[in-house]
Design goal:
By secondary structure, the protein is an alpha/beta fold. The protein folds into 2 domains: about 240 residues, Aldolase class I (TIM Barrel); about 70 residues. The relative contact order is 0.12. The chain is globular and about 55 Å long. Helix 1 packs antiparallel against helix 11, helix 5 packs parallel to helix 6 and helix 11 packs antiparallel against helix 14. The chain has 14 helices and 10 strands. The protein has an 8-stranded parallel barrel with strand order 1-2-5-6-7-8-9-10. The protein has a two-stranded antiparallel ribbon with strand order 3-4. Helix 3 links the parallel strand 5 and strand 6.
């Protein structure tokens, strides 16, 4: 049965965990625009058998008030994952997402992220210990494999044996990084094979793409979106049919960009660091404008905080938007 457009208001939309972007500053700002139901925090990784305080500060409940957050862990040893599970439980969380999708070679070569997918027997051993010793629900974010998309099938067999809350699939292999296209055609086979609920992540940049995917996979009720929401913070509302009018949108956009700038100014020292950080956001935000190249170039040319603030206001309130 095909979902009707009117059903899309019930689709769960989450913000993907993105290192350097989806921290508490970004989550708090985009949450005011609305439409996003769950926010997955960037992964926590243990180093020298300890957790960086900065990682836990990012998910501290008081700083994330009014936001549904799911912490994420990167690890390949049961003790490390259990340590993070215990830490997030102490903060009041009852779910932990396990990152089996990070494709970066420096991570993957250590059998972390997507680099662990060619080793289903290790995944099995890890899950056997973690699930037995923790009452925190574990969900998994994964790719199709690291070297080959065939790697997903033995991994699914392993996941089917264990208590897993949800599997979030990004249908690329690790070696692809973010090149090429996500293989959406494989999703129905994964849903049919999995004993657990399956969510989708990858190449959802428009409401039309979301509608098409849900229509073809009506049992999927959760879309995780990363770069699509970086480029268009209104995308979740557009998918759900709750998009504001153009005037309100420009006001919300200015408030959104301004809120992030204000928090980054408090956090960073000096105009140089601030402008550098904001430029990384504008690599994505510039895509909201009809002349994306000009928008990004305008931001890159800013040399003072005052110039940046003035240019942003001019652009958001006066330039042609495509969203």
């Amino acid at each position: 049965m095909t979902k009707l457009a009117s059903d899309f208001s019930n689709i769960k939309i989450s913000l993907a965990p993105m290192q350097g972007f989806s921290d508490v500053i970004y989550r708090s700002a985009i949450n005011k625009i609305g439409g996003i139901d769950v926010f997955y925090a960037p992964y926590i990784k243990t180093e020298n058998e300890s957790i960086k305080p900065k990682s836990l500060a990012d998910i501290e409940p008081g700083a994330n008030e009014g936001i549904v957050v799911v912490p994420q862990v990167m690890g390949n040893k049961p003790a490390d994952i259990l340590q993070v599970a215990n830490a997030v439980k102490a903060l009041g969380y009852n779910e932990l997402n396990w990152n089996l999708g990070c494709p970066f070679p420096m991570v993957a070569k250590r059998r972390l992220g997507a680099g662990l997918l060619p080793y289903p027997e290790i995944i099995d051993d890890i899950l056997a210990e973690v699930v037995a010793q923790s009452d925190v629900f574990l969900s998994v974010k994964m790719r199709l494999g690291y070297l080959s998309s065939d790697e997903i099938w033995p991994v699914l067999d392993v996941l089917n044996k264990h208590r897993i809350k949800e599997i979030i699939v990004h249908p690329r292999i690790g070696k692809q990084m973010y090149n090429g296209s996500a293989d959406k055609s494989i999703l129905s086979a994964i849903v049919g094979k999995s004993a657990h609920p399956v969510a989708y992540n990858g190449d959802i940049c428009t409401s039309e793409q979301a509608s098409s995917l849900i229509a073809e996979n009506p049992t999927v009720s959760h879309l995780m979106i990363g770069r699509g929401l970086l480029c268009n913070p209104f995308l979740a509302n557009q998918i759900k049919g709750t998009e504001p009018n153009k005037f309100i949108k420009r006001t919300q956009l200015l408030n959104f960009v301004g809120a992030i700038a204000e928090k980054q100014l408090d956090r960073l020292q000096g105009a140089g660091h601030f402008l550098q950080k904001m430029t990384t956001y504008w690599e994505y935000w510039s895509q909201m404008f009809a002349d994306a190249h000009r928008a990004f170039k305008t931001i890159k040319k800013c040399r003072t905080i005052e110039e940046y603030t003035d240019k942003v206001q001019d652009m958001v309130l006066g330039w042609e938007l495509t969203i």
